[in-house]
Amino acid sequence: EVQLVESGGVVVQPGGSLRLSCAASGFTLDDYAMHWVRQAPGKGLEWVSLINWHGGGTYYADSVKGRFTISRDNSKNSLYLQMNSLRAEDTALYYCARGDYRGSGGHADYWGQGTLVTVSS
Amino acid sequence: DIVMTQTPLSSPVTLGQPASISCRSSQSLVHSDGNTYLSWLQQRPGQPPRLLVERISNRFSGVPDRFSGSGAGTDFTLKISRVEAEDVGVYYCMQATQFPRTFGQGTKLEIK
Fold first, then answer.
1. Contact in structure between A49 and A36 (CB atoms under 8 Å)
2. Which terminal residue of chain B has fewer beta carbons within 10 Å of its beta carbon, N or C?
3. Of B48, B92, B96, Cβ closest to residue A95
4. Is the Cβ–Cβ distance between B97 and B30 less than 8 Å?
5. Which residue among B1, B92, B100 places its CB closest to the CB of A59?
6. Residue of A121, A108, A84, A116 whose CA lies nearest to A36
7. Under an 8 A CB cutoff, do A46 and B51 touch?
8. Going by C-beta distance under 8 Å and a sequence separation of 6 or more, which residues neighbour residue A71?
9. What is the pLDDT of residues A24-79, one digit of tens each?
């Protein structure tokens, strides 16, 4: 059974940093593109970032480019999102989602439950 | 960026009746590889999103056949043939043809 479990969400001050993790099980992370998607309270879905299945390509929304870094550790079957220079508008529930097999994120088929990041002083 | 526009934003439906949601993209979603990367997702209250349909019309594993996707180019539709109580939630279209990936604003399906 495919499972994705996010962790690392906390309350952090503006300008602070945070690293989110996503533990994958039931499939080989190596073989899949992986997304981060966020949802601000009461709002819609916003795509944040993607890493290709082979890890050679990373992509970001303009709103986080230069501040967030996506990475993966296939030996630990884990996905990460390093978040720096956090702003109030980064407050959201952050989901990791599996992309397509050996692809570039042509869809997002399995989703975790999300981890809540709150940026507030 | 490709802008995804959904209509309606809210859809009150009677149980057992059909429902339809439209999604229009600001440019063609046909990828250079020939595929059209348009997906539909459902988000029930308090739950993470769930993939229903990918590449316009391919139902994902376990999705009931009352859900169907259609369309081409820039105009796409999700249809529910007979709405059930468990279908309540917000539905999103998502394009994955171009970076950044983008979602529609969401359509809230509720029971009359």
1. yes
2. C
3. B48
4. yes
5. B100
6. A108
7. no
8. A51, A55, A58, A79, A80, A82
9. 999 999 899 999 999 999 999 999 999 998 777 999 999 999 999 999 998 999 99
